[in-house]
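Bit of a strange request maybe. I'm writing a small parser for structure token strings and I need a real example to test against, not something I typed by hand. Could someone generate the tokens for this chain?
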Amino acid sequence: MCDDCCGGNQLRKFANSLKNSPTVLTPMFRASCNKFNIDPKQPVTDVKTRWSSTYNMLKWALEFREPVDDVCLDRRFRHLEVVKDEWTALTNLIEVLKVSSSS
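Reply from user aminoacidic:
Good idea to test on real output. This should exercise your parser:
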């Protein structure tokens, strides 16, 4: 559902990396959340066999966009960056999925 063309793959990689990096990425993410006065929450990961997980992952990502972008400024995590056009496409995609999930 959510692939390279719109940044979804980057978000999937970021969420999985965050869950699997308790010593490096997770503390950076928590610090970044604090910097933006956002209560840090565990990422929601996308599961290809459950379409609603894509919607939930995107909801999480949009809520934590500032900390995600901030962490990706670090050269070690630049490969996980979601660029502005991808964020726009993901915002549009979540609106479509929101309508679908309420049907």
